[in-house]
Amino acid sequence: MPDKFAVGLIQMRCTKDAAENLARAVDKIREAAKRGAQIISMHELFRGEYFCRTEDAALFDLAEAVPGPTTDALSKAAKESNVALVVSLFERRAAGVYHNSCAVLDADGSFLGKYRKMHIPDDPLYYEKFYFTPGDLGFPNFDTKYGRIGIQICWDQWYPEGSRLTALKGAQVIFYPTSIGWHPKEKAEFGAAQLDAWRTIQRSHAIANGTFVAVVNRVGYEGNPAAGDPGIEFWGNSFVADPFGQVVSQAGSEKEEILVVECDPTKSEDTRRNWPFLRDRRIDAYQPILNRWLGE
Q: What is the pLDDT of residues 254-288, one digit of tens each?
């Protein structure tokens, strides 16, 4: 059986100062490593505030090459602490072609590859279609020093197809770097249900696939009501669920936290033996799912 490994999730607040956010992230990576984390993930687009609250062409200047300056800096941190990193960045691929991407760095600082967000939302305060081209790298796995991992980014987490394909390639844990929160006017009426749905859908991916899921979200309020931006209260609640969807560790909704959780691959083996969803899949019957809609 593969060895046990420990994942670390860094739930943090962000400012508009990219250098400050990167420096704080490096400090938290070191802290997580000292606490035993071996594969550590940041939340979605951690280098700044969640800028997709508005549509502003000037914000394309925030993008960078991947690999590039941020991965160069974090590769040093990975090597220094002997940890693998999942790093969410605004990728500049070419003029006019940008992606919401995750780089994966191994414990020796090497660049293992990247995942590009496949599902791109367009909702109030989440105007991502303005900024991001849909991913074109499929659903890769990455073999780190400590374990085989897969990645889905934020809006991807609502789609069972992506998580299934990621798991079918052998991922022992699927990371979900995220930036999600409450619209101020909606929190009182819908907030509890929204948070519960978010937690439930990702737990369901763990259950359906018999794999660990590690969900890391940002925390804190970001907005500028005086400029017509009501902002978002990011709800934190980062968590790790085991292969049967049981939440084994969870952060709160208001403060920065670091979660460190041991993952034992034998739990996936045991779960899949007793709940053999992968065995009983009717792969011969699923062709219609490739259609947009099956009604008239």
A: 999 999 999 999 999 999 999 999 999 999 999 99
Which residue in 44, 49, 233, 257 is the catalytic one?
44
**Catalytic residue from among 49, 52, 114, 117:** 117
Model-level pTM? 0.97
* 67 upstream amide cis, omega within 30 of 0: yes
Annotation marks residue 52 as catalytic: no
- Alpha-carbon distance of 126 to 141, in angstroms, equals 27
Q: Is 44 a catalytic residue?
A: yes
Q: Report the b/e string of 116-137 with b at 16+ CB within 10 A.
A: bbbbbeeeebbbbeebbbebee
Q: Domains in the chain, ordered, with CATH?
A: 5-290 (3.60.110.10)
Contacts of 4 (CB under 8 A, 6+ apart): 262, 263, 264, 265
What is the distance between the terminal CA atoms of the chain, rounded to a whole angstrom?
49
- Tokens standing for 247? 């939440």
Res 60: pLDDT: 98
